[in-house]
Amino acid sequence: MQRALMGLAVPAARILDAGGADPAEPAVLAPLLDQLTHPAMSLRADPESGVLHVEHLNRPALDSAGRTHGTAGRPLAQVFPAVSAELAQLARAARESAAPRRAARLPVVHRAGDPDPLHDVRVLPVGPGRTVVLWHGATDPLMSLTRVLGRLENLAAFEDDLIAGTSRWSEQAYRIFGLDPAAPAVPLRRLAPQLHRDETDKLHDLLTELTERRHGAHTVVRVVREDGGLRHVRIAAEPLLTGGVLTGITGVYQDVSAQHHTEIALSATYDRLTAAQTQAALRHQLVVQLQQAIVPEVPVLQRLHGLEVAARYRPAAEEYRVGGDWYDVLPLPSGRVLVAVGDIAGHGIDSVTGMVALRNALRGLAFTGHSPARLMSLLNEVTLHTHGHPTATAVCALYDPADRSLCWASAGHLPPLLLHDERARFLDPPRNILLGAVPSAEYAQRVTPLSPGDTLMLYTDGLVERRHTGLDESLAGLRSAAERLGRGGLDERTDRLLASVTGDTDDDTSLVVVRVS
Question: What is the DSSP letter of 236?
């Protein structure tokens, strides 16, 4: 280092002693540039054409250009054809502004097969028409590391020279600490005034690890900026040893404020989610228990007034989608049998509570002896006055064993399926509006005669609806499946139907199958 400094001092002294001579003469610049360990060259612009010519290249610059001699006096475009245009533009800007110009890399876009790019290019004006160009090669490991650190977000390099008592910061370090880039870098051992008062112990422990134990270490501290901002900064450092003597410290600063705030937010969110999940689990358990109490999944086969009745309830595939499906089979004092199926729109506790309200209301209204059409009109008014203002579809049927007739009304529900002599057909429903849509709605009804052995199927949309299949096609599949059931007990045939027809909308399903004895 001493020999290098002495070598640089000789041409420097000549320049200073020259007095009135042109300090930018190539004969004076050349020895100075030759002492540099990284590439450097001097350029001069032709007074008439403005074309740049190379006056001198030091040995690293010759290596960078792929030449050994014969470059002096040649146009720049012949020596560095890939970057001559960019260098000419920087040189012109430097001369016009009388200030240095820089470029991170030339050319900006590098293609395979092109010469190696020039890194950290600096162009300095040194007199009328003359400039000096300094750069680093691609093989310079220090420059490569600096470029890599510059690409990493909120990451900055630093180095403390403990022998000379100086420090160097990369440009990003000044932004992290909120300091003026023109200010001197702060050594790690004097960083305490930049930190929160509670962080000085962390800095002391870090310095102890680096300087006494001679081990690499890291820590996270809070930095108080001059603008009042608070940043969380990770310090990772390594000691530099020369002949067993600690001569310096090198490392990086990383602003981890965003990560720190994210961790705090995630922690708080996790706590809230845990509490919400616990509440949701209890809420869901209550809803499921309520639904199962009202709509049992596999009820026992019933025999009522000349009817065999099998009912099935299949819950949604996803537990959280607790729905509002219901069914009811109820013998009435008149000797008739109420058979009903309904579906509240939506899912969750609101749907279940709405289902409970409508099912119980229909049960009570059925004892009045009204017709299915009148029962639907009254149930519509109940729906309109139910909390949450639900809407629902439903089928309400009254079977009279005296003449084996089925009087029924539908409120926007899917059509019942009648299986007679192993042939299935859908009953044409009256065109009635769904429940809860408009007040004072009037409902029409149908009377369908039944014969011994006839089987009637009432169901909700979860049985047939499929995401990528039209409703007509889905209903046709249900009709075909019903015709393929063959002979057997009602329970067995109901289970086979439920197994062979499955919707894919993750909705719950209610199925009521009645057979005339």
Answer: E
Tell me, yes or no, if the pTM score tops 0.85.
Answer: no
Closest CA relative to residue 118, chosen from 150, 98, 96, 90: 90
3-state secondary structure of 299: coil
Q: Is-contact 84 53, C-beta < 8 A?
A: no
What token pair was written down for 451? 């014969």
Give the CB-side neighbour count of residue 87, counting CA atoms within 13 A: 33
pLDDT in tens, 294-313: 565 545 557 788 899 998 88
Residue 383: both structure tokens together: 């729906």
The reported pLDDT for the residue numbered 476 is 93
DSSP output for 78-144: HHSTTTHHHHHHHHHHHHHHTS-EEEEEESSS--TTSPPPEEEEEEEEEETTEEEEEEE-TT-HHHH
* 181-233 pLDDT per residue, tens: 888 999 999 999 999 999 999 999 999 999 998 888 999 999 998 887 888 99
Judged on CB neighbours under 10 Å (0-12, 13-18, 19+), 430 is middle
Helices and strands counted in the chain (H then E): 13, 21
Burial class of 70 by CB neighbour count within 10 A (0 to 12, 13 to 18, 19+): exposed
Q: Which one-letter DSSP state was computed for residue 461? A: G
Asked if 185 and 161 count as a contact pair (C-beta separation under 8 A), the reply is: no
Q: What is the CA radius of gyration of the chain?
A: 44
Name all contacts of 490-497 with Cβ < 8 Å and 24+ positions apart: 490/301, 490/308, 490/310, 490/455, 490/515, 491/301, 491/310, 493/455, 494/310, 494/312, 495/312, 497/457
Question: Would you state the pLDDT for residue 108?
Answer: 76
